[in-house]
Amino acid sequence: MHAVSVSDGIFWVGAVDWNLRDFHGYETPRGTTYNAYLVRGEKMTALVDTVKAPFVPELLARIADVMDPAEIDLIVVNHVEPDHNGGLPAVMAACPNARVVASGSGVKGVAEYHDGLVVEAVGADDVIDLGGKTLRFLPMPMVHWPDSMFSYCAESRTLMPNDAFGQHLASSERFAGDVGMDLALEELGVYYANILMPLGKPVAKAIEKVHATGWEIDVVAPSHGVIWRGAEFGRVLEAYGRWTTNVTAEKVVVAYATMWGSTKALAESIADGIAAEGVEVHEFDLSETAIAQVTHELLEARALVLGSPTLHHGMLYKVSGYLTWLEGLKPAGKLGAVFGSYGWGGGAVKQITGRMTDIGFEMSVEPYTEKFRPTAEDLAAAHAWGREIGKAVKG
Ligand SMILES: Cc1cc2nc3c(=O)[nH]c(=O)nc-3n(C[C@H](O)[C@H](O)[C@H](O)COP(=O)(O)O)c2cc1C
Ligand SMILES: [Fe+2]
Ligand SMILES: [Fe+2]
């Protein structure tokens, strides 16, 4: 297995998980990578992060392309989540001379994950000299967990920010410019929407903290997906700037589920009404489409229009399941509107309205409900309701 040179003295030695299709509850059709980096000084070599446990043999084989793993002097645990720290005990067994460091909270996390395993704490005041190469650390609580930390090598102008700026993208290429910026930025957005959306404030703070250090950065090497070089990272920061401040476009997501097609027919008329106002619209049947894709479109959308027929006085579970996903992600600064077909007493629309209100959607548009199969007049009314939403998001 080959290692890839990332910057002066730094090598990618991670693993490619081509077949991962679900990452803690959402779809990852393009797989992912668990990135780990060797930083080689004149006196010492550090391994920054390990990999998910089943991928340790791949990690060790890539390290062996550069050096004997037994000669590694230092292991840095930037984050204790098992996709990066799961392989730590097996890697420590292969690197018996390595000192292991993590953030203060990471030290506790390593012990909790690995039966009391004791490692050393490092913080913002620590510098580890590898001989001609140094490593510095910045604790980054909640980017992605309380223990998360960024590592930096000044001499190679390389930042290793772990989960920040990552993408779930398996590839034989290691650099964003080589897979193409369009694909890399698209997957950056899917990742932000489905993982980092509720953490916008800590992520924005992390970016400020890095700026405040004055660190010179040419290469940003995250723990998932491809590596950003030079001006590419400017485009990443531009996108993160929009997402962490909830900037939206004239764009609406219409999502629904249906039993017999009435709610779907309403969705189509509503989406057409929104589009008739010149507003970008995306329409998804939640039984057919990956929640990751719906949420990615929602990231910069100004409104979510959610529909369900009534089943036993309530909403369909696909809609409820999607609301559960959004309750975690807490999209902010968006308009919400609800529609659905019912047969007698109804109930779904009221339930959805309550849950969207609790999430924080602005629910200023009256819901649109309709009994059994929509007539031509009902569809025209749904279209007009869609136009109303289109006008509201243009305001
Ligand atoms: C199993 C089942 C349970 C239902 N329960 C209710 C209910 O409790 N209250 C109600 O108003 N309608 C109820 N309905 C009627 C549906 O809401 C109605 O048929 C609606 O038009 C279905 O919309 P759809 O074509 O989008 O699935 C139920 C329908 C089914 C199939
Ligand atoms: Fe994580
Ligand atoms: Fe991760």
Summarize the structure in words:
The chain is of the alpha/beta class. It has 2 domains: 4-244, 4-Layer Sandwich (Metallo-beta-lactamase, Chain A); 251-394, Flavodoxin domain (Rossmann fold), CATH 3.40.50.360. 37% of the residues lie in helices and 22% in strands. It has 13 helices and 22 strands. The protein has helices at 56-64, 82-85, 88-94, 104-113, 176-179, 181-196, 200-213, 232-244, 262-276, 291-299, 317-329, 348-359, 376-394, and strands spanning 4-7, 10-12, 15-17, 22-23, 26-27, 32-34, 37-40, 45-48, 74-77, 99-102, 120-121, 127-129, 134-139, 149-153, 158-160, 219-220, 228-229, 251-256, 280-285, 303-307, 335-342, 368-371. The strands form 5 sheets. Strands 1-2-7-8-9-10-11 form a 7-stranded mixed sheet. A hairpin with a 4-residue loop joins strand 14 (149-153) and strand 15. The model has no long low-confidence stretch (mean pLDDT 98). The structure holds flavin mononucleotide and fe (ii) ion (FE2) (2 copies). Flavin mononucleotide binds next to helix 9 and strand 21.
